[in-house]
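Support request from a user on the community tier.

User writes: "When I paste my structure tokens into the form, the page sometimes reloads and wipes my input. The last time it worked, I copied everything first. Here is what I submitted, just in case something in the input itself triggers the reload:"
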């Protein structure tokens, strides 16, 4: 358990412990690499065969979704799975007036997808903004059709879809208590009564610190923060959550944790609210009855519950 806590503190959300787990159930755990992060699964079950089968099926599903969902889309692409994910992404884009925009991929490519400390030419960023417009994306018979010059990135929602898929697999096997962690995004399958997961939210400015704890069950949890993929040049932090209006990292908030029944929506809303900023983010969360925890640049916590 200690190794889990150490790892999750570094990457974002921290799983602290399982409260009131069944004494008759055993814990089955596995980990692998997908979506550019370590995926960890913990299942409580009385049946080792079911637990093993469930974990293997989740692992296969993640491998497939990573292979199709992590790539940028810059040409017509037939994929029923990606079309399903994109449809949900476009709904969130419309809800947020483009704060969440899957056509941001062409700008992310210019930033090198934040894999190296690259500061792009500002004039080039401005010239590419004309291609960022979710309204130009089309889906026809499960074929994704980017607009002219567009590059679609589903990275802000595909991992949430993978978590939803994992939950469906867990339910198919009749498992009542499980946790899937994938680089800041979590799916909690927790039973009835006192079965709950205690989640520690990372302090955005202390890699080994917890700024808050949440007691949750049966939900998805997604965190977007400026500490996940970033670099610093001349004392300024540049992170991967880009504002589609400017082509530059969104400013104002340092972390947004979203809690939702749907993994895709938790994933997308966390990003969208981060981009919207403090005031508009609070307004959006209240209007749409979304549970979120915002942390601003002064490390003040704002909960919309």
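"...and here is what came back when it finally went through:"
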């Amino acid at each position: 358990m200690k190794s889990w806590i150490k790892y999750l503190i570094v990457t974002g959300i921290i799983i602290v412990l399982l409260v009131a787990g069944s004494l008759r159930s055993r814990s089955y755990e596995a980990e692998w690499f997908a979506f550019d992060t370590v995926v960890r699964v913990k299942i409580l079950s009385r049946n080792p065969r079911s637990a093993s089968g469930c974990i293997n099926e989740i692992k296969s599903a993640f491998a497939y979704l990573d292979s199709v969902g992590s790539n940028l889309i810059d040409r017509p692409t037939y994929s029923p799975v990606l079309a399903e994910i994109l449809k949900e992404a476009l709904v969130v884009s419309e809800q947020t007036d483009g704060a969440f925009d899957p056509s941001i991929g062409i700008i992310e490519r210019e930033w090198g997808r934040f894999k190296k400390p690259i500061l792009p030419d500002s004039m080039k960023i401005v010239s590419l903004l004309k291609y960022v417009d979710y309204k130009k994306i089309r889906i026809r018979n499960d074929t994704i059709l980017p607009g002219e010059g567009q590059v679609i990135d589903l990275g802000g929602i595909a991992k949430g879809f993978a978590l939803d898929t994992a939950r469906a697999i867990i339910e198919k096997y009749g498992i009542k208590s499980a946790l899937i962690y994938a680089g800041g995004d979590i799916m909690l399958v927790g039973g009835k009564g006192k079965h709950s997961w205690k989640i520690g939210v990372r302090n955005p400015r202390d890699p080994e610190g917890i700024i808050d704890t949440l007691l949750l069950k049966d939900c998805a949890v997604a965190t977007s923060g400026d500490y996940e993929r970033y670099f610093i040049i001349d004392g300024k932090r540049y992170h991967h959550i880009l504002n589609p209006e400017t082509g530059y990292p969104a400013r104002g908030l340092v972390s947004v944790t979203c809690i939702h029944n749907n993994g895709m929506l938790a994933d997308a809303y966390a990003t969208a609210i981060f981009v919207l900023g403090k005031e508009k983010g609070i307004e959006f969360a209240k209007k749409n009855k979304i549970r979120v925890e915002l942390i601003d640049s002064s490390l003040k916590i704002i909960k919309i519950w």
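Agent notes: The reload is a front-end session timeout and is unrelated to the input. The helical segments are 2-11, 48-69, 80-95, 105-110, 122-128, 158-172, 263-276, 278-287. The first strand starts at residue 13 and ends at 19. Escalated to web team.
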